[in-house]
Amino acid sequence: MDTNLVEMCRAGLKWFTMLLDAPSARIVLFGVRIQGHIFVEVLLGFVIVFLLSQKSYKPPQRPLTEQEIDELCDEWVPEPLIPPITQDMRHEPPVLESAAGPHTTVDGKDVVNFASANYLGLIGHQKLLESCTSALEKYGVGSCGPRGFYGTIDVHIDCETRISKFLGTPDTILYSYGLSTMFSTIPCFCKRGDIIVADEGVHWGIQNGLQLSRSTIIYFKHNDMDSLRSTLEKIMTKNKRSKNLRRYIVAEAVYQNSGQIAPLDEIVKLKEKYRFRVILDESNSLGVLGRSGRGLAEHHGVPIEKIDVVTAAMGHALATEGGFCTGNARIIDYQRLSSSGYVFSASLPPYLASAAITAIDVIDQNPELLVKMKQNIALLWKGLKDIKGMSLASDPESPIVFLKLEKSSGSTKDDLLLLEKMADRALKEDSLLVVSSKKSFLDKCRLPVGIKLFVSAGHSDSDLIKASESLKRLASELLL
Amino acid sequence: MKDCFARPIASAPDAWFDMVERDWNDGEKVIDRTTKRRRCLNLGSYNYLGFGSFDEYCTPRVIESLKKFSASTCSSRVDAGTTSVHVELEECVAKYVGKHSAIVFGMGYATNSFIIPVLIGKGGLIISDSLNHSSIINGARGSGANIRIFQHNKPSHLERILREIAERQTKTHKPWKKIIVIVEGIYSMEGEICKLPEIVSICKKYKAYVYLDEAHSIGAIGNTGRGVCELLGVNTADVDIMMGTFSKSFASCGGYIAGSKELIQYLKHHCPGHLYATSISTPSAQQIISAIRVILGEDGSNRGAQKLARIRENSNYFRSELRNMGFKVLGDVDSPVMPIMLYHPAKIPAFSRECLRENVISKVGDLTGIKYFPAAPKKQEAEKDTIKLV
User: Tell me, what DSSP letter sits at residue A56?
Assistant: First the structure.
């Protein structure tokens, strides 16, 4: 048996070598000698091609059964609606017991109020109260309807006409809420694909409007004209398609987050050079800047027609509520149909519109209020310029006096807690109400945080001196 | 058709008001106001309980609060914008609605737009009714969460969408972080009342959060005007977030969110509307407090109960009479919103002008509540009358 096996192996080997030595195995192809092993390699190649062409094995997919869906749904654990409450979230704001004028009452004590944007001291003004009272008696409180459907009261139309006359623009549209003005106006004009160049320090209302517009947003350094110039240059030269897109610059006249004033004359020059449109928020400059309080355009000597869209909230110098947008008639007419905050919302209560009309009349008739306010700002600056640990970061003419922290602790949260502590102590120990920066996690602005004081024409010299002394003392105790 | 919209009025939006007549040459763009006034029957304002004019209880208190606190605080709620009236208002609203705490904003539209992004973000899912208001859509888009729409008022379709949680888990292995279902109490387009009990039970089963927008239903339906929860017998603890506006039944302005103590504390710390926006005008806040007191009978009279009974009777009577006359009227029983279907867009300006013209013949008044919905599906251009208490 052994020999049989050996014989068989020998025969097989002999046969195999014969095959390899056969004449067919000695072909010369393209100058290369082909030997017998080529057949093995070719066979191997066929096997590989066959395997690759086979579909990979997937387990057959069957739809989930009802029971499986039930089990998966039971297993799913959602996140809690809100994260756990921390100690800093329990902080309560001060509760006022009287009007938020230059002096107010908190906890039964008289307190000097630098936390209301009551720049001209019109809160509690006799004429405003009279016009509100007569409007309340005639119209009640609410208007019970959107502007398109019987929510338009004749006071609204009068208010719009008065604002247009005051600012020198063709037409105005009234909004029922200050913050909603910007976030309704911007998405009305700016759509997907447009380019918006905005200041990085704009307030949350504008940021929300920019986000809702779905346009391409490019931020430039806060109030830095060189950065704006280079950004505009980059957009116009690098992107050839941008010549056919709508382009906007969005800025605030007086920035809420820093108290800086925008250099409108330079912005207008850049806008004309690169052919952009300007949307300007004049909430904190209306009734404040300019010889007669007509805003930033008057302050810089720029004709108001050069700014394409001007918006403003009336909850500042005008001591009422709501907002408006002003510009040429076509822009305003368009918003009456397609601005969501106008069409889908109840209109401004009529007594607030009549308060706005009276406030503008008072500003027109009493230019000394502006002079007093400017004097107060200068006095406060004088008192605060030597403060230790903080520095004045706002413009010397801005009614928002902003003290930023010179040395940050590294964490914004800790800075905010420290500033809140400072403001609380100012209220408790010195009866002084100031504003410490507040940040929502939705706010993208990364400017430095600090203490804000809103200067009013109603503050007396002693109020301003008291504020400076108190802040200097607290800064030296808490910050050094 | 421009003369059919934005008709100005020269008096309070009461049962009868003075409408300003306008000169308009057909085809011209400009409409001029005239000094002529026309007394008209008002079926177009959202003045459900009749607080929208001088009220013997509310208005004196509002004027008193105006004299004490002035028209505006010029400050946000966290700075110097919280007065004792605001604190009282939030307590009053929370108690009225049946929740622990409430937070109040100066504009109803903005309430939805501000709150939804704070509660949910990327990785979450919002399931919203197909006929939800534009403010909810705006807020949902601004939040960055995924949005799914379920068929109007169909709990079965909602359940089908919720069951897809399981599918998503197997396919992408990334389950949703949380799910919020947004519905309204009364839908302003259809006048229908939400099927809240079914929706709440489905959401409980699938662990989704319920957000109820009671813009039109608060103060207008239910025995004591507490809205759709009271009407349909739903426990307010089952609705996680209750939202409403004050511009309709309470004839003021603003909106509120009511919920648990922790929810409101969180919102007060993080919501941009609370941190940056000017607080609600103090006289408006006083109007809401006074209106709630009248509704609950705390002013010592039973005017509130009478008003609620009248609006229910008026709504049902008007609806049944219109149906007897042959009109196709939508809306559920007890709902004060009733759309009358015209079906043809061209009829709308004609209907509006005919109603206005009635005044000349009858010398009493005319129906002026015409609403055209640019957002309504083309097949059903509706004319809507909102019944209000006379």
Answer: P
**Pairwise CB contact (< 8 Å): A136 & B276:** no
Contact A145 B371 (CB under 8 A): no
DSSP symbol at B326: T
Q: What pTM was computed for the model?
A: 0.86
Instruction: With beta carbons under 8 A apart, name residues in chain A contacting B58.
Output: 141
CB contacts under 8 A, B 39-98 vs A, are 42, 44-47, 51-55, 58-59, 62-63, 66-75, 77-84, 86-87
A191 touches chain B (CB under 8 A): no
Q: Which domains does chain A have, with CATH numbers?
A: 24-113+367-479 (3.90.1150.10), 126-365 (3.40.640.10)
ipTM: 0.87
- The DSSP annotation for A67-84 comes to HHHHHHHHH--PPPSSPP
Residue A320 phi, psi (nearest 5): -135, -160
In chain B the domains, ranked by start, together with CATH numbers, are: 2-42+342-370+385-389 (no CATH), 58-295 (3.40.640.10)
The answer to whether B319 and B338 have CB atoms below 8 angstroms apart is yes
Q: Do B75 and A104 touch (CB under 8 A)?
A: no
Shortest distance between the Cα of A148 and any Cα of chain B, in A, equals 4
Burial code of A318-332, b = ≥16 C-beta within 10 A, e = fewer? bbbbbbbbbbeeebb
> For residues A416 and A434, what is the distance between their CA atoms, to the nearest angstrom?
14
Contacts of B251 in chain A (CB under 8 A): 140-142, 144
Task: Specify the DSSP class assigned to residue B120.
Answer: -
pLDDT in tens, chain B (390 residues): 666 677 778 777 777 777 777 776 655 555 667 777 777 777 777 788 888 888 889 999 999 999 999 998 899 999 989 999 999 999 999 999 999 999 999 998 889 988 999 999 888 899 999 989 889 998 998 898 989 999 998 999 999 888 887 677 656 667 888 899 999 998 877 788 889 999 999 999 888 999 999 988 898 888 888 999 999 999 999 999 999 999 888 989 999 999 999 999 999 999 998 999 999 999 999 999 999 999 988 888 888 888 888 888 888 888 888 888 888 887 788 887 777 777 777 777 777 777 777 753 332 222 333 333 333 333 333 444 544 433
Closest chain A residue by Cα to residue B11:
A139
